[in-house]
Structures are given as structure tokens and as C-alpha cells.
Amino acid sequence: MSLSKFAHALSMPCLAFLAALFGPLVTISTPTLAHEYKLGTLEIMHPWTRATPKGAKVAGGYLTLTNRGAAADRLVAVEASAAAGKIELHEMTVDHGVMKMRQLAHGIGLPAGQTVTLEPGGLHVMFLDLKAPLKEGESVSARLIFEKAGSIDVTFKVEAMGARGGDMHKHKGH
Ligand SMILES: [Cu+2]
After folding, report:
1. How far is the CA of 127 from the centre of ligand 1 (A)?
2. Do residues 142 and 67 lie in contact, with contact meaning Cβ atoms separated by under 8 Å?
3. What tens digit of pLDDT does each residue of 2-39 get?
4. How many whole angstroms from 97 Cα to the centroid of ligand 1?
5. Would strands 42-50 and 150-159 be described as parallel, antiparallel, or unpaired?
6. Residue 53's closest CA among 128, 139, 142, 160?
7. CA distance 159 to 139
8. How far is the CA of 85 from the centre of ligand 1 (A)?
9. From the centroid of its chain, how far is CA 35?
């Protein structure tokens, strides 16, 4: 097998793993180790948030959810975070050129067999009433509550102010 064929045969998770391992060598951005969780047939990839400026009361939370099951599920709420007084699920949309956020009262649907990505500019977790500024390198714990799969405690890694996501996201090409 030629080297190029071998490279093409590497799966994306594998590439992401390599990128995480060799991040300091191949990227000028801050390397961030991806972390993931499993809850039943749900895969929860790399929850992360961003450092906040002094005095800021809100921060977005991002993660990727894949539903490997045969039935739809739903992220109904995020709670139990010591870092924030309140947590909501939001969607950012552009309405006539104006960015707007709206709360998703019914949560975020997770269709069977599909991946839903919460990312800057789109669906996101909203940490409100922050107790203190979020600092890069720290983490924020919170509990994700799903309609069918139940709940799980995860850690949102705090990345740099203005970060667009970890290496995982960059290597997926968005
Ligand atoms: Cu929001």
C-alpha cells in the first residue's frame, strides 16, 4: 500500500487523534485534546467554551452530539454548573443582517443516526449569570439532560477568547 493510500485510509477520528497528539508540531493554534463521552447510543464530543472578559456575565458552550441509536432523542436541558447561575439552550440566527439569539424552549432534537453540532454562530449552550470570568485552561462542569438517554456530567474545556473550536473542529474542515 502506498503512503498516500495509507493516509486516505486513516479515519477522521484517527486523524483527530494524531492531530491531538502532534498538535504542537503541526499547528500554530493552542492544541486542545479532544475529550468525549458516551451515554447509551449517544456520543458527546469535546464540550468546550471560551474565556470571558472581566465583567462578562454570559458565555457560549459548544459540543458535538451524535445519535447512533435507531430512535430520535433530544437534549432537553443543561444544568448543575457551579460556574453559572442559569443555563439555557439557544440558537443564533441572522435576521436581516442582525444576529439574534433565541432560547430553545423544547431543547435540541437529535435525529436517529445523525450528528448535531453546537458551535459559535449556531446552536449553543448559554451559560448565564457567570459567577466569575472563565479562564483559558480551566474547565466548567455541567450536566446534560436528554429526553431518553438520561443525564451525564461533562466538562466544558475553556479555550482562548475568540476560539472557534478545538483541533477536532479544524480538522473536520469547518
Ligand atoms: Cu445564547
Report:
1. 8
2. no
3. 444 444 444 444 444 444 444 443 334 445 567 999 99
4. 17
5. parallel
6. 160
7. 9
8. 14
9. 10
